[in-house]
UniProtKB/TrEMBL annotation:
This is V-type ATP synthase subunit F. GO terms for molecular function: proton-transporting ATPase activity, rotational mechanism. InterPro entries: ATPase_V1-cplx_f_g_su, ATPase_V1_fsu_sf. It comes from Flexistipes sinusarabici. Keywords: Ion transport, Transport. Belongs to the V-ATPase F subunit family. It comes from the Bacteria.
Length: 108
């Protein structure tokens, strides 16, 4: 089974990793090489990248890498304001990747 990778900025404090997901920290200068490593590892089926590390140049390089990748590379929206829920995008991506609808439950 393929894994989900989250590429975030340093200020994310490994929040995805605490939830059991694979999380990698990268800035604009390093994100392309991290994506390339993840694709080449063949371990990940979904790679979500924090939109704050993306610009037009980085996106074009990632698009080129994605051409031979059977998984999904997509943008992870910037963190929402406290109290807002951001689970819909992950629900859609996981469902698209595995062909089943998955529900994430958030408990406080």
């Amino acid at each position: 089974m393929k894994k989900i990778a989250f590429i975030t900025t340093e200020d994310a404090d490994y929040g995805f990793r605490l939830a059991g997901a694979s999380q990698f920290i990268a800035g604009k200068e390093k994100v392309v090489s991290v994506v390339e490593e993840l694709i080449n590892s063949e371990e990940f089926g979904i790679i979500l990248i924090d939109e704050r590390v993306l610009d037009d140049d980085v996106l074009s390089k990632i698009d080129a890498l994605q051409q031979n990748f059977e998984g999904i590379v997509s943008t992870l929206p910037s963190p929402y304001e406290e109290g807002e829920m951001a689970y819909d995008i992950v629900d859609r991506l996981v469902s698209r990747a595995i062909g089943y609808q998955v529900r994430f439950r958030h408990e406080r």
